[in-house]
Design goal:
With about 100 residues, this protein is mainly alpha-helical. It folds into 2 domains: about 1-40, no CATH class; about 50-100. The protein contains 3 helices and 3 strands; from the N terminus they run ββαβαα.
Amino acid sequence: MFLATTRLRQFWKKGEELLFLGTWCRDGLEREEWKDVPCQFLPCPWDDRERLDRAVEECGQAYEHILQGLSALLNDIHGVSHSIRYWRLLRSMAHALLSCGI
């Protein structure tokens, strides 16, 4: 079995059953392009809402933990004494600007 992570057929191992990482691996392809390919799809781990909520919570806790150490390090590097809230806001603004492609 070959793990297919893309819909680009040139990256699929021919002659072997495919395990698609998700439905996006076939989205946009005509049915004729994959109907004869023996395949299975991995279930989306985030279909379980409780699991998703736990993961979001754990990521938030990890972010806050990392931000505490990072804030102290950034204050030392820049010779300032800004609060964690300051660095959180600065990071949020930078993320927003980079997400917009500015």
